[in-house]
Amino acid sequence: MAREAGPLRILIVEDDDGDAMMIREALETVTTPATLHRVPDGEEALAYLRDAVGRPAERPDVILLDLNMPRMDGRETLVELKRDPRLKAIPVIILTTSDDIRDVTQMYQEHANAFVTKPMDFDALEAVVRQIRQFYEHVAVLP
Prior knowledge:
By secondary structure, the chain is an alpha/beta fold. 41% of the residues lie in helices and 17% in strands.
């Protein structure tokens, strides 16, 4: 079943307030509205997602997942997401400062849909996040 028309729903899983704010600002620079929700770690992401399963209007279309977070990091979160038959079809983009090839390889082996290293300056980050959003809004067909 394809997603209903309307604003793209994006879940940002990011513990760093500054990074989360920059990602949010980058996503909001596009004139088309998006529905953004942010949680600070994997445990809260899984709780939010499992709760949203019964409410399709709250289920995200795309997840932007940081790797290095307290409590449950992005690596563990991705494994749990892809194990859950109700959640595994949601595209997960790893958006992290890591460029370690071991992280890249592991995340693709765990079925990440993309691995993107966060640029350090806002303009570059904005361009990357806008490209991700553009792809999932206008190119990809989402479940």
